[in-house]
Each structure stands twice: as structure tokens, then as C-alpha cells.
Amino acid sequence: MKGLFIINPSSGRQNFIDKIKEIAGMLVIDQICNTIDVFYTEKQDDALDKAAALEKGQYDFVVAVGGDGTLNEVINGVVLSQSNTPVAVISAGTVNDFATYLNLPQTPKEFCDMIADFKLKKVDVGKVNGKYFINVVAAGLLSDTGFKVSKDKKAVMGKLAYYLEGAAELPKQFGKSWKMKFVTDEKTVEEEILLFMVANSQSVGGFREIAPLASVSDGLFDIIIIKKMDIFQMLPLMLSILQGDHVNHPSVEYIQTKKLHIENLSGEEVKVDYDGEELPEGFPVDISIIPQAINIVVPK
């Protein structure tokens, strides 16, 4: 087999390059692969451009090495390339929600065994205002935290960097709410909200079951809308979220749908996150699903 590793060297975890070298060595020595090509990103969209240039049959698989943002770029590139190249994931970022949901390998041996077995799972991909995403679109309370954490902090502190930034931002943002309109084929919701998430997998923002009914291959998004509430209502909701039983909470609207239009009626700028990246054009947002658009290499 022939593989391409697209590596973001500035991803969150320190010393992960040694792990990549070990994996590449094992793949060749164990004769799982006869060729491994490596591409290091230097700036935004490098991973996207490299993956978009893939031709059908050029590689047996491409590996996204980094966090959710790197994976997002590789997915965008592979979809644009129309090469149907299977994607493997090595989590080197700080959160890695998608990898967590699919229980992807954490050790070099487990990863090499997965490549040797080469089991593929067809996965849905979302499209938001012309860009593709694999895991989530979100906006509202603390959803812009990821943009504010520097790469240096991520590298040294990992997930703790996000938690500290969130703790610093919460007092500034709490009490804020935004009026938004959500239009699906099934219903229209107009609410003052704290936060919304359009999830493809169950795991978002480090919470493993924020969208407990979600599946990456059911052809549906799971929309979680958290309505405006005071801090005394928020604490019990957080406990419900941690336990995965918040779907029926009175302050939560949970919708499954194939497409969605969202308008920001608040008159205030609100940043939109897609897979850890900022959506440049912001609102209004049009989201649709492309069923089983990508092949992901998964464990047996």
C-alpha cells in the first residue's frame, strides 16, 4: 500500500513527531506499506490544498495528523478532489472530538494494526455555506474559545488551555443571549439562545455525549439548541449534559434533520465555528448533509 501523511507540526501535543516516525517505520518494516510520503503544513489551507490535489488511485489512504482543524482541511480537500481516497486520523491536537467518537487508535501499534486490517466506514459530511465539515458547526456561549487560545498554549497545556480560556471568558459572556431563527423541513424555531451546535457525531467540545442520538452515517444532523436561562438553571443542565440525559430538558431543543437554515436576529456579530475553524462569512448559515461522502479507516 501507498500512504500520504499530512502533518500539522504545530498541533497541540508536544513530541508527537516521534510517534509519527515510529508509525511510519512500523508500516514499512512490517511490510504493511511500501511507500509513505510526508507533507508538513506551514500555514492555513496547506492541508486542504494538498488533499484537494489528490488523484484517484494515487494513494491507498491519506492520514490527517493534527487536531479537528487539520482533519477538517483534509476532509475538505478529499471531497473537492473527488478522488474517494480513504482517510485515516492520528490525533495530535488538543480536543479531537471526531477521533474520540470513533474510538480511533491512540498507540502506534494500534494504528498500524488498523491500517493492516483496512476496515473502511462510510461517513456523512456536512456542508456549511460552501465549506465542508466532519463534526460540528456551533455558535454562542464559549463557542469561540478555540480561536482565542494560542498555538503555544495548546502545545504546552493541551486541553487545559481551553479550560482556562473558557473559565476566563465565562464571566464576560454569561448573561449574554442571542435571538436566532432555525428553519428545517420539519419545524421552525425562533428563540433567545445561549448556544447551538449542529453535530454529526456524539462528541463535541470534549463532551462525549453532547448529541447522544447522533451517528456519523445516518444521513442526519443532530441540532442542540440551549435556550436562554439564568445561572441557577445552568448548573443542573450541565450535570444533565455530563450524564447524557439532557435531550428532554425543558431548556434544550433537540432536532434531527438533513438540512438547516439559521439566521442571527440579535443584531450583534456572533462568530460561527466549524470543526474548530472560524466561518469567515458568518450568518446567515445554510447547512446540508452529504450522506456517506467519505471513507474513514476505523478499527475492526
UniProtKB/TrEMBL annotation:
Q: Which Pfam families does the UniProt entry name for this protein?
A: DAGK_cat, YegS_C
> Which residues are in the DAGKc domain?
1-132
Give the UniProt keywords, A-Z.
Answer: ATP-binding, Kinase, Lipid biosynthesis, Lipid metabolism, Magnesium, Metal-binding, Nucleotide-binding, Phospholipid biosynthesis, Phospholipid metabolism, Transferase
Which InterPro entries does UniProt cross-reference here?
Answer: ATP-NAD_kinase_N, Diacylglycerol/lipid_kinase, Diacylglycerol_kinase_cat_dom, Lipid_Phosphate_FormReg, NAD/diacylglycerol_kinase_sf, YegS/DAGK_C
SMART domains, alphabetically?
DAGKc
GO biological process annotations for this chain's record? phospholipid biosynthetic process
Tell me the cofactors it needs: Mg(2+)
GO cellular component entries: plasma membrane
Q: What PROSITE patterns does the record tag this protein with?
A: DAGK
Q: Write out the GO MF terms.
A: ATP binding; ATP-dependent diacylglycerol kinase activity; metal ion binding
Q: Which family does it belong to?
A: Belongs to the diacylglycerol/lipid kinase family.
Database matches in PANTHER family: LIPID KINASE YEGS, SPHINGOSINE KINASE
Q: Which NCBIfam families match?
A: YegS/Rv2252/BmrU family lipid kinase
This protein is called what?
Diacylglycerol kinase family lipid kinase
Q: Which organism is it from?
A: Anaerobutyricum hallii
